[in-house]
Amino acid sequence: MLKEEVEIDGVEEIKISPAGNVILPISRKLVLTELTERTCKWPIGDPMKDDFHFCGCESADTSPYCSYHAKMAYQPVGERRKAANSAAR
Ligand SMILES: [Zn+2]
Fold first, then answer.
1. Ligand 1: distance of its center to the CA of 65 in Å?
2. From the CA of 80, how far away is ligand 1's center (Å)?
3. 53/17: higher pLDDT
4. What is the pLDDT of residue 39?
5. Ligand 1: distance of its center to the CA of 49 in Å?
6. How far is the CA of 38 from the centre of ligand 1 (A)?
7. CA 75 → CA 24, 46, 50, 66, distances in Å?
8. Per-residue pLDDT tens for 54-77?
9. Predicted pLDDT at 88
10. Which range, of 28-32, 41-45, 73-77, averages the lowest pLDDT?
């Protein structure tokens, strides 16, 4: 029902269609030490558990997250966290 367009340049493995209409980037399942400034730092899973990892997809220069997670991160839901915004670059 929900159609979402995601712009992806230079990525060729987009033939996987997950069940449903959720467009989720293919997680690289990176651990903290594998993150770089060009990887999405969106945490996935429970930090207390073994399978916790980071998205690891390519992130934009201006964001610590990939385009998908950047959308989630910057939803208006964050209104209550205004204090944190002033600290964010
Ligand atoms: Zn991501």
1. 5
2. 23
3. 53
4. 93
5. 19
6. 11
7. 17, 21, 28, 14
8. 999 999 888 899 988 998 887 765
9. 55
10. 73-77
- The alpha carbon of 68 and the centre of ligand 1 are apart by a number of angstroms equal to 6
Distance from the alpha carbon of residue 1 to the mean position of ligand 1, in angstroms: 23
Tell me the domain boundaries of the chain: 32-80
Q: How far apart are CA 8 and CA 58, in angstroms?
A: 10
CA of 66 to the centre of ligand 1 (A): 4
Q: Cα(63) to centroid of ligand 1, in Å?
A: 10
- DSSP letter for 10, please: S
The residue type found at 3 is K
| Separation of alpha carbons 74 and 17, rounded Å | 25
What percent of the chain is modeled with pLDDT above 90? 28
